[in-house]
Amino acid sequence: PVHVLPDGWSQANDLWMKPSPRRSTLNLGWVGAPGHVDDVSTIKRLVIRIMREFVQTQLVIAGDDKVFQLFDSLPESRKVYLPATSVEESPFTFAQIDVMFAPLRNIPFNRAQSDQNLVYAGIRQIPWVASPVPAYEAWAIGGMIADSTEKWYDSLHQLAANEELRA
To answer: pTM score, two decimals?
Structure first.
C-alpha cells in the first residue's frame, strides 16, 4: 500500500498569522531551492522590465544565490537576498513578498513539483504568477497561470499596477 501525504502547513506556528511588515515598496519575490536558476532565467528580462517600469518595486529572492545573481544588473538598493531557512521560518520569508512569481520549465522534474509555495502564498494572501505545471494549474484562485512570455509580462504588470487586484 502507498499513502501520499500532501504538503501542508500547521497553525501551530504563530508566525503564519503575524502581519507582514509595513513597507513603502512593492516586493516581487521568488522562493525556491538551488537548481531552479534555468527556470527563473526564462522570465528574467520580464522581471527586470517590470522593476524598471514600477520604481516602487523591490526584488526579493529567497533560497538560491545563483537566482539572485541573475539580477546583478539591478541596483543593490532594489533587491534583497534571503538565504534558505527551516520550514518553521518560512512565514518570515513569505512575509517579505507582495507578489510571488513561480516559473518552471516544462520538463518531467518540474511537472512533478509540489504546490507547497502556492500553499504558503495562500496562507499569507500573496497573489502569484506561475507556470502551467499540474500542481499549479490545480489552483483555481489566488493567482494567474502564465503560459507565454506575453502572459507572464501582462500578469506581473497587472499585479504591480493594481492594488485591488493584488488584494
So the answer is: 0.92
